[in-house]
Here is the input.
Amino acid sequence: MTGTGTAPGAPAERREGRQKVTGGARYAAEHPLPDRAHAWPVPATVARGRVTAVDTTAALGRPGVLTVLTHENAPRLAEPDDPTLAVLQDSRVPHRGWFVALVVARSPEEARAAAAAVRVEYAVEEHDVSLTADHPEAYEPETANAGHPARREYGDPDGAFASAPVRIDVSYRVPPLHNHPMEPHTSTAEWEGDRLVVHTSSQGGTAVRAVLAALFALPEDRITVDTGHVGGGFGSKGTPRPDVVLAVMAARETGRPVTVALPRRHLPAVVGHRAPTLHRLRLGAGTDGRLTALTHEIVTHSSRIKEFVEQAAVPARVMYATPSSRTLHRVVRLDVPSPSWMRAPGECPGMYALESAVDELAGALGMDPVGLRLLNEPEREPDSGKPFSSRHLTECLREGARRFGWDRRDPRPRTRAEGPLLVGTGVAAATYPVLVQPSTAEARALPDGTFVVRVNATDIGTGARTVLAQVAADTLRVPLDRVRADIGDSDLPSASLAGGSSGTASWGWAVHDACTRLAGRLGGLTGRLPDEGVTAHADTTGRANAESPYARHAFGAHFAEVTVDSVTGEVRVRRMLGVFAAGRILNARTARSQFIGGMVMGLGMALTEGSTMDAAFGDFTESDLASYHVPAHADVPAVEAHWIDEDDTRLNPMGSKGIGEIGNVGSAAAIGNAVHHATGVRFRELPLTPDKVLAGLSGPPAPTSGRAG
Here is the structure.
């Protein structure tokens, strides 16, 4: 179509943008309900043990306090599938920061002051929070996250590695990382008679309703969950968190609406984190650069109460052709907070380590890093043997190299300097799976010539309202301004969560099908439409989740240029460039924003973001934005995002792949590889802070990363 703004890729402006910048968009804590109270949680101050006594006398005597909930008086819940939601149900303390009480008061300030007055006594037990590669309690789980087998092996990886003329045997470490969305995890709960209404900052209202129904023994049709506006999630809001359970508890106990807005310092302990991963990679190759062996083994941690295994070795099953491979995950259950989803779980840390090791192999071979990747392109997915639905990584690498000026690069490390600044460039590949989940949707034609699509999608800042309206307008062949998209309410047709870069592909499929059916119905009608309009429904169950005979992935290539100050050790990124193959781009404006946002998040992972677990106290020392440093505007250089046009008919009716996470995959490796090119020193532990860089520059030469036979 022309002139309507509905054509695929049209850069339509986000529909809720004006509401957000003018304050009209209401988030979970901003609903002005009469007599609303506020609650403040009390976290445990020991790393492991049990509560022996809770003295609430002083707290209850403070102004404005309505009640204090503890494990002794809180409402009883049904046993949750997710143990992290069993809050205030017993005296156990599985890790520091576990909530042991909740103060409810008339204002947030009164609740906070009273929470400080709660006195808790503990029976303290010995704890262990230290992850090591040789931890005696490390074990091989049945699966890593998302159902991936923990181990995959074919050929003879050990024998092939031992006999390879060129070998790389290296270890990398990615520290714990934290989701820090702009809007902390927040919920407001209100009982309207026997109905429960919840406003919550979540990536999936349908899932929240199902969990609350089970926990509080309520029919789902008596619960409404509003997720109209969500201020970011990055995976940490992909499943319900304790805030929504505590808000419902407190509202039931007080008979008032109650808001629980978790303090940012509490988030690392109760909403998940990216678990640390210890990587060992062994790459064997012939002198021509062709891989003969690839082994990627990782060790990670999980909590005592819940197994969560970061699937960081899985990307190595997708990327490169080799006759022998082993990918293995091992996990240690420690007295730590439960790790969970964080943007590009598995792929992000896994591709950092893999793409860094590939760069090391290129150095050992004396080959161009781009050329080495091109040489080892597989014809089929190495692990499954399935054909790719589409794979345009070579085009991304070549186009990125052209745009970046890669041919002007002197391949020798530490050959370019500007005074004290060492200058280098690096490259890395990226991949992320195509995920699609079943969803339902409704499309309605109204007598005034407008259309409404209804689906319980969640917009976490990605522009879902806009893109879904574009899908509908394109399917109905009408101008975009005649379509409205209603989302973010569990009373709408149920939909999957906004996670795994699956949102648009899942919801858009249902919207496309509903609009296709509506167009068919309208084609058989004559005269004016009835006052209520004409409606069509769609449910993609059985199709969206059907097994595909194809390996479906998005791909990309990252290029980075950095400077390293040889006096201070400071690393600065001058420019970043990414080229992606992600199916049909549905909105150029929002897509570019997502790609760039992911790349900047990778910059933070490479240079500033990192957390440490205090072995003595059992908690994260970087628990807020004063100590956990995310990139600021001054850290972000010129960032370019481009894409390859892909026409993949084996995905969904729109031909789209997810784009929310692939920008984050590989960008940290490109920066790390550029730092090596600038300095000649290989750093294998993130983030690349000045102390690490200075030590590397001034210390003895690092051990060689490879052994050439």
